[in-house]
Amino acid sequence: MKPIDLIEHPEGGRYREVFRSAHTVSKYDGTGRPAVTHIYFSLNPGEISRFHKVTSDEIWHLYQGEGVHLFLWAETDSPPQCVTLSARENCFCHVVPAGTWQAAAPISETVLAGCSVAPGFEFSDFTLMAYHSPAAEKLVSLAPELAGYIGM
C-alpha cells in the first residue's frame, strides 16, 4: 500500500494502518492481539507527535524526509533521551520499549515513517500524556523545553 489517504492521529500527525497480522498472540494480561501491526506515519514541518505510550514494543522506521527526533522517557528522574533517525546519523530504525513515553518531531521537512507494534496495536493500549498529570509535571520539571509535546 502506498502512503496515501493518511488520517489524523490523536497524538498528532497522520497515519494509515497498512498491516495487521492474522496470527494472534497472548499479551502479559492474557488478552489476545495480532502478532504485529504496521502503520505509515507522517509529520509535516512544525507538527509534533505528543507524548504517549503503548503497552507493546514499537519500532520506528524512517522512510522519507531528512529525519525525525524521537524523545523517549521511562518516567524516571532522568530527562528524556533524544534519538535521531536520519541518514546523517546513519540510524534508520529504533525500538521503543513497551510502556515508554514517546514523542516525535521532524528535523525539518515532512517525514514519512513506519511504526511496527508487537504484539499488535489497539487504541485501548494507547495513553496520551495529560498536561496536568503527575507524569507531565515530572517531565516538565526535568525538560521544560518539551512542555509543548504534552497533550491537554
Automatic annotation (TrEMBL):
Classification via InterPro entries: Cupin_DUF985, RmlC-like_jellyroll, RmlC_Cupin_sf, YML079W-like
Source taxon at top rank: Bacteria
Domain DUF985 intervals: 4-129
The protein's name in its UniProt record: Cupin domain-containing protein
